[in-house]
Amino acid sequence: MAAPHIHILLCTHNGGPHLADQLESYGAQAHGDWSLWVSDDASTDDTRATIARFADRHPGRQVRLFDGPALGPAANYLSLLLRPEIPDGWVAFSDQDDVWLPHKLKHGLAEMGARGAQVYASRTILTDAHLTRIGPSVVHRRGPSFSNALVQNILAGNTLILDPDAFARLRAMTAAALQEGIDPPHHDWWIYLAMSGAGLPIVNDMRPGLLYRQHATNSLGAHRGLRAGTARATLLKDRHYAGWLATNLAALSAASMYMTPPNRTLAEAFGAMRQVKGGAARLAELRRLGLKRQSWRGDLVLAGLALTGRL
């Protein structure tokens, strides 16, 4: 596969002291053919000035800055990927506070070519706010599938690369959902749902491609450790998870014309299962549908949610 041009999609909001590191890591990529498209969500710090300085230091590089909708990270990313100014082509999604390792883009493209994938994600190396390494992100050994995407996101949004066909499909599915007034709550989970629902091949690479900075203002942070587990338990208790599932299913329904028939049927059956009366009946239907998370512990939690009507 010839080395393609990649559109880097970056969303920012008060990037503070970490944005410059992220920007400089683009310039250090072994794959040098890229442009940068930024959607800034009403930053009040020096985020825009930092981006302008970066653009000035790279006069031969296309760097475009847009105003975001100021409705949160998910809405910002979804609005950016629908920008008509961004041509069709390859895209890589980026957070504002990580550091890409030099091999990230080149290796991701090579893996996609070798495995015949249209969507790429990878593990990350978790760090503290000062980039001191903590360890690698979790391994999702069951791998990506639509039956998993319906109940869990395993694709790190800051590692995603999509080929032109996948990007075009994602744009169409996102536009269909937004036109119905449905706003997916998490852009990376939505990408996992949309791409797997459309039947596109996905690779979730074991090799980390970036340093994933953990700090107080992370939107969600990594899915690891006691703090992450406590946060997830709170979301389940407060029924946030059930609300996310409902919105995701509504978004898929709006974009169902782009899904494979079996996946469309599975999504509809999951929606119907959530309305079944009686915990035992819901659990039996959950098992019949084959919906699973990435671990037996996760499956137990899912079963408990079905039994107690929290799905």
Automatic annotation (TrEMBL):
GO MF, one term, reads: transferase activity
Q: Does the keyword Transferase apply?
A: yes
Keyword annotations: Transferase
Keyword field contains Transferase: yes
User: What region holds the Glycosyltransferase 2-like domain?
Assistant: 8-171
Name the UniProt record assigns to this protein:
Glycosyltransferase
Provenance organism: Pseudoroseicyclus tamaricis
